[in-house]
Design a protein that fits this description.
With about 260 residues, this protein is α+β, with helices and mostly antiparallel strands. It folds into three domains: about 5-75, no CATH class; about 75-145, no CATH class; about 170-260, OB fold (Dihydrolipoamide Acetyltransferase, E2P) (Beta Barrel). The chain has helices at about 20-25, 30-35, 85-90, 95-110, 120-125, 210-215, 215-220, and strands spanning about 5-10, 15, 40, 50-55, 60, 80, 135-140, 145, 150, 165-180, 190-195, 200-205, 230-240, 240, 245-250, 255-260. The strands form four sheets. Strands 9, 10, 11, 12, 13, 14, 15 and 16 form an eight-stranded mixed sheet that branches. The termini are far apart. The longest helix is centred in the middle third of the chain and has 16 residues, at about 95-110. The protein binds zinc ion. Zinc ion (ZN) binds near residues 44 and 72.
């Protein structure tokens, strides 16, 4: 099946969730089309142009068949998404150093401006090259290269295939609380992931004291209440579950979470 994109790369050098387009489109169709169409690209390689499908029930962004060749030669979206069984196998035989590198690359590529730290133009051509891509790719048992399921944490359809482990990423406000039953030691930590703008909780990542110890230094930087929640780039891999007010997820290993403070 063809990839449907839930985010797009825009000419100002940033990725945006597709809602940014639809919100404008619902207010002013002509303006949305003028501003974005012809100026939006694959969020990973930033080369293949995206086409907007505007059916009443079926709104989505895609790369049309005739544009498939415009993806970077190493872009994961040239390939198929790994299925549930293939994904489970990958995480079962996990090389934790490898996954950590993947998460860091995902965070840098999908969430940050390319040219944030150096001169415009020059860096872009280099960064667009090979070594920046491929961090979602895995080789299946059938020796086929497929890409790991992943999703922007702001995506509208978090419930689709929710039982499949994914790499989630976003720019969010974070804080950390402890669960301490009376007279006992800390039983668990909960990393609260909030929408950066509305401060509404998106998900809750449960961290055992054992896992916490491996990343104490990083987690201790986090504020301990919602009022003082701070902005971070976050990227983690896990299985989300729907909970009463938001989503929840258990962190299996300290290397499945990376954070970077936004100054
Ligand atoms: Zn691409």
């Amino acid at each position: 099946m063809k990839s449907k994109f839930e985010e797009f790369y825009y000419e100002d050098d940033k990725n945006y969730p597709v809602d940014v387009y639809w919100n404008l489109y619902d207010k002013n169709q002509a303006e949305a089309i003028r501003k974005y169409e012809g100026h939006i690209f694959c969020p990973l390689c930033r080369l293949a142009p995206l086409t907007v499908a505007k059916g009443n029930e079926r709104r989505y962004f895609k790369v049309v068949e005739s544009d498939m060749d415009k993806h970077d030669i190493d872009c994961s979206y040239r390939r198929k998404k790994a299925g549930k069984r293939e994904t489970e196998k990958f995480y079962k035989d996990l090389d934790t150093t490898d996954i950590r590198n993947r998460l860091v690359s995902c965070m840098n590529r999908m969430l940050k401006k390319l040219n944030s730290s150096s001169s415009v133009g020059k860096v872009r051509t280099i960064e667009r090259g090979k070594k920046a891509l491929g961090f979602f790719d895995i080789e299946t048992e059938g020796k086929e290269i497929k890409y790991l399921p992943h999703k922007n944490i702001y995506a509208k359809d978090l419930e689709t295939d929710i039982d499949i482990q994914k790499i989630y990423y976003g720019k969010c406000s974070l804080y950390l609380i402890q669960y301490v039953p009376e007279g006992e030691e800390v039983k668990a930590y909960y990393l609260k992931v909030l929408n950066q703008e509305t401060k509404k909780q998106i998900c809750d990542i449960a961290i055992s004291p054992f896992v916490y110890n491996y990343m104490k230094e990083q987690l201790d930087m986090l504020p301990d209440n919602k009022m003082t929640a701070k902005d971070f780039y976050i990227c983690f891999s896990g299985v989300l579950e729907k909970s009463r007010y938001s989503y929840k997820c258990k962190l299996r290993d300290s290397r499945l979470l990376v954070l970077e403070k936004i100054d």
